Amino acid sequence: MAQIFEVHPDNPQARFLRQAAQILDQGGIGAIPTDSSYALVCRLDDKAAAEALRRIRGVDDKHHMTLLCRDLSELGSYARVDNKQYRLLKNATPGRFTFILEATKEVPRRLSHPSRRTIGLRVPDHRVTQELLALIGQPLLATTLIPPGEKEPLNDPEEITHRYDKLIQVIINGGACAMQPTTVVDLTADQPVLVRLGGGDPSRLGLEVLEAEEEDA
Prior knowledge:
The protein is α/β, with parallel strands linked by helices. It has one domain (3-211): DHBP synthase, CATH 3.90.870.10. It is 27% helix and 22% strand. A hairpin with a 6-residue loop joins strand 2 and strand 3. Helix 1 crosses helix 5 (127-136). It is globular.
């Protein structure tokens, strides 16, 4: 059964986050609040946890997983970013954006897209997420908490507990989230491509983006 920690979204109790971080460090999978919606997370370097996360989420290896990073200094370790891309990222982080970028060798091949060698990265603007990442000391592998066969993410911590209590190891109850997915922007082409319009305002990027088919990331 999952351990449940109820925390204040703006001033989370440090002792609860430390306990949650310890569970993740030991290979656990968690449900945590972010600035867009609840997410399922695990350690980046834990192969067994990453595979379990995919099974629980009901996605295959072609699904873009996301790395939750504290800031751009962490992001730069896991993605190849040129000066132009960095300026765009700086204008949009932290915030409700996910960027598709070329993965570096620091990202295990099993976590990147199998044919493109890309990864989704983002810097969330949420106190609970940021403090948890600080305790973990590295990015967390994440995916939006959408049950298999459904289209909308879960937002009620009680419902998350009811449905996932026996599947994951920790749930951080930070109250309701924004209930809006991130805006996904692919930066691997010559021009940025808007993959999905969500909570992040593309005008923050200061450029005109080209629309593509929607993709869950």
